[in-house]
Amino acid sequence: MDTLQTNAPEFVWPHDDTSRVPYQVYTDENLYALEQERIFRGPVWNYLCLECEVPSNGDYKTTYAGDTPIIVVRDENGDINAMVNRCAHKGSLVCYKPRGNVSELSCVYHNWVYNLRGDLQSVAFKRGVGGKGGLTEEFDNSQHGLEKLRVERFRGMVFGTFSDRTESVADYIGEELVASIDRVLIKPVKVLGYHSQIFPNNWKLYVENNKDSYHASLLHVFHNTFGVVRPTMGGGIKISDSGWHHLSYTQRTDIADNEIGKEKVRSRQDEYSLRDTRMMEHRLELGDNVTNSIQTVFPTLVVQQILNCLATRQLIPQGPNQSELIWTILGFEDDDEDMLKLRVQANNLVGPAGFISMEDGAVGGWVQRTARANGSEMTVMPMGGRAIEPSEGSRVTEAAVRGFWKGWRDCMGI
Amino acid sequence: MAVAELDDDLALRLRIEALNADYIHCIDDDRLEEWPDYFTEDGVYRVTTRENADLNMPVSLIFCEGNGMFHDRISALRTANIFEPHTYCHSVSALQIQKSANGVHTTKSNFLITRTMSEGAMMTFACGRYLDTIVEQDGELKFSERTVILESRRIDTLLVIPI
Hints:
The complex is a heterodimer. Chain A is α+β, with helices and mostly antiparallel strands. Helix content of chain A is 22%, strand content 27%. Chain A binds chain B through residues 98, 191-200, 219, 221-222, 225, 269, 272, 274-276, 278-279, 324, 329, 340, 343-345, 347-348, 351-353, 355, 358-359, 361-362, 365-366, and chain B through 47-49, 51-52, 55, 57-63, 65-69, 71-72, 75-76, 79-84, 153-160.
């Protein structure tokens, strides 16, 4: 960013690496404002939506990049464009409905009209009324378009960035982690439903939760008891060279199914069983035996495969103390009726009421409540040492969380 | 309308209102082990949002089909899932009997739920509609289908207690 408008708070990272994080980062208003500028409007690719959500020319969908409202629209040439959803005149939302089909973008407040690329086309009463009022000669439409994002379509997803210097999405994510997105998004997808979950906590606590492969088999009884994620199962952690993005995956092996966990943990309840196990059925549709694949793209995208539950999760910061998670539940376009039925059953596992995922909604809020009172204290994340490196065969590491904080510090200049 | 017919309609209305009241008190009183009994053996319970319903989206927040899944939701809540203790207070109103023939009644009513956390924080957690198919079974009314349409797509923190 060339022009910073937010004064950097007098904040110094209090530790020599990212294995400790000060609680202040979860509550500080100034840091929140700085994050919007230096991360979300900075060098990152923000996940905006899926291509299949704007299938026809003229289709638009509103979304967010950080807390900035965004319009994604498919223009008359079939290109997908993204603009800040803010009229250049007085800043009103241009699109105030979540989705629709339009031939132009027209702000209802004063009828300023933009084309589907965000260029200002006309202004109401440009010449005034009866020769009086209106614009002066010097007003130049081309200087008053909607603020545009650079857009890239990637594997059916739509990403936007405010930076003209950021590398391509593929280079941003890195070859190894692109391969794991390709592993999941093997065919054209369709949306099977939306969920929204409001977290009473800072956005970063939920990102950390996703990067934290250490907690999955401990907090979530379903993961451990039903062998979706057990510490003894195969799999590992991949981390991009930048440290910013990660993949945590688990796969079934014979050993994992037979070996009893050496440690007695609350989440392994062998006496607990389901009366109806249909939701745990797993059709190996991706050509391997991976049960759980949670992939993050910095800052706020998760690409999820849990058994046959496929989804993107988009996190929207809403001030330092609240965030919203949008779950877009996916199937493949060519799903047959049985597969659709299986996904409907299996999706009991995820979402705000998901047997596996509901706990993630609770823990962030608990940290937020202690963070307010303990701003100068620090978390400690020693699992797997202090380095940010991948791990094959074990997910008992906090390396990917440390990688997230490296990304945060890289962007924030802190 | 003949008086006898009116009496039948009123009697049915009162019975369905009683079913709705019993159902919400079962949940609000934390007698959740009884919750599956409000449904037929192969009953279907679905919680979705107005947005998903309007878009004809098949995936729900909660989907139970058959008695086993109802019990699994409750046993998970009791033994497996982790959440901060909280209670609901439901209000149910505006019962509309849309169709009634051969012991099968199609009805609609509104609900409002306040959620109270153990520390006392209280909020309007959900409001929406119950779309029900109710059947006569051994002299009792049971839901063969209850679809819960939440007005808002936003769930605060998590949804674990049935609606």
